[in-house]
Amino acid sequence: MITPWEIEGVIDYRRLLEEFGISPFSELLNSISSPHRLMRRGIIFGHRDYWRIIEAMKKREEFAVMSGFMPSGAIHFGHKMTMDEIVWHQKMGGKAFVAIADMEAHLVRGLSYEKTKQIGMDYVKSLIALGLENDAFIYFQSKNDLVKDLAYELSAEVNINEMRAIYGFSGDTPISKAFVSLIQSADILQPQLKRFGGPKAVVVPVGADQDPHLRLTRDLTARMNLFSFERIENGLRVRSRKEEMLREISELVFETKMFEGHVDVFGEVSEIEKAIRELELKLGGFGFIPPSSIYHKFTTGLTGGKMSSSKPESYISLLDEPEVAVKKLKNALTGGRATAEEQKRLGGEPEKCVVFEFYAYHLIENDEELRRIMEDCTSGKMLCGSCKKFASELLIEFLKEHKEKRDEAEGKLGDFKLVF
Ligand code: TRP
Ligand code: SF4
To answer: According to the model, what pLDDT value does residue 308 have?
Structure first.
């Protein structure tokens, strides 16, 4: 079982797709005009309804990207991946929303709000250093009443059995975990509130451990709306939590058929959806569109196994001094063989190599260059020593530049819509 609070064993991504009904990202890759390197390389391996975002990008319709960070420990390259995805979607025309999950860090991890503010600000600076532009909305959960109020409303639509089924809660699970989950659902739905221009496609880039939150949120959209629909042949079947509202549907321009408890509407599905959403907004409903999501692979710990914020040797922080970072990288687990002779003969195994992962996820943008490294590794032409040296140079370069940009970001904070 994968929940936001426990990931056990090695992840089988293919099984994850099948078991939870996440769609493989590869099916959409060709319809994206200039995909991000994490997309091209299959590191973003799955999605839900990402076609909505592709469509919005193509038609230049309004869309948003939203994700959150729990300010509970050092900011590392796992966080950078999500940050890169937010920045990329913003560049592609999305409105960016970033939650600093201080309520979660406080309630679940026991950090003081003083501490979460300090760590959270470090995250914000790195985000800006990585290219986030100032039309983004960045907020600390505890300071955002809109999110807290929405979470409170959402709580009426979920019961304990569902929480049990989705998150594996048991009788002695603290309610704080349910609380935190609903706050996160509110984070995800906030970009669609009237204050932010109403319903729109929203993509949430996350690791697969966050998928339960997305399943819950997607379910909640349907329940919060006045109207919910399912596809039927030639149209949509519409239901409403307020049945008298169904009559309003039959007054739309489409061909409709009234039944006890639902209306069937015939015509072009996206047009019907749009008309119903407009009607819903007119009637005072939310008209939420189920959020889309993309899932990236977990970052491997430097020494193999899971990366853990309680084990500094298992990750490189974006704030590590270059010498410290390089030392960690030099000790990292590679796909190298036991001896140089053996490696020359058999070649290395980049697919098992943390250093190669660093190249692919972060250090090398050019696909051709990455392919060459892979070849030199598998052919035995390159040995791990020189390979690590090269990776270290790139890493130092990145960290130095990041540090400079963070200093610049400090001066730019005032230009951002920042609620803290
Ligand atoms: N729970 C997430 C984590 O532990 C952080 C988070 C908070 C989040 N709100 C969010 C992620 C909204 C995605 C969307 O990392
Ligand atoms: Fe990894 Fe480089 Fe060694 Fe290949 S040569 S196993 S990519 S460190």
So the answer is: 78
The rounded Å distance from CA 361 to ligand 2 centre is 15
Interval between CA 99 and ligand 1 midpoint (Å): 7
Residue whose CA is at the smallest distance from ligand 1 atom 7:
68
The response to whether residue 370 sits with its C-beta less than 6 Å from ligand 2 reads no
**What is the distance in A from the centroid of ligand 2 to the CA of 29?**
28
Domains within the chain, CATH numbers bracketed = 2-224+290-298 (3.40.50.620), 227-282 (no CATH), 320-418 (1.10.240.10)
Specify which residues 317 forms β-bridges with. 76
- pLDDT tens, residue by residue, 190-232: 999 999 999 999 999 999 999 999 999 999 998 999 999 899 9
Q: What's the CA-to-centroid distance between 387 and ligand 1, angstroms?
A: 35
Q: Which residue has the tokens 């996440």?
A: 22
d(CA 270, CA 282): 18
pLDDT of residue 149: 97
pLDDT higher at 269 or 3: 269
**In whole angstroms, how large is the CA radius of gyration of the chain?**
23
Q: Is the CB of 318 under 6 A from ligand 2?
A: no
Torsion angle of alpha carbons 139, 143, 146, 147, nearest 10°?
A: 70
Instruction: Answer yes or no: are the C-beta atoms of 341 and 370 closer than 8 Å.
Output: no
The mean-pLDDT minimum among 199-208, 249-258, 320-329 falls in 249-258
First to last CA, the chain: 35
Determine the length of the chain: 420
Judge contact between 86 and 65, C-beta under 8 A: yes
- Is residue 328 in contact with ligand 2, taking CB distance under 6 Å? no
Mean pLDDT over each residue of the chain, to the nearest integer: 94
Tokens of 210: 């966050």
| Number of the ligand closest to the Cα of 70 | 1
- Ligand 2 atom nearest the C-alpha of 378 is 4
Q: How far is the CA of 183 from the centre of ligand 1 (A)?
A: 9
pLDDT digits (tens, 9 = 90+) for 334-360: 999 999 999 999 999 999 999 999 999
C-alpha 261/C-alpha 209 separation (Å) is 37
The residue contributing the CA closest to ligand 2 atom 8 is 384
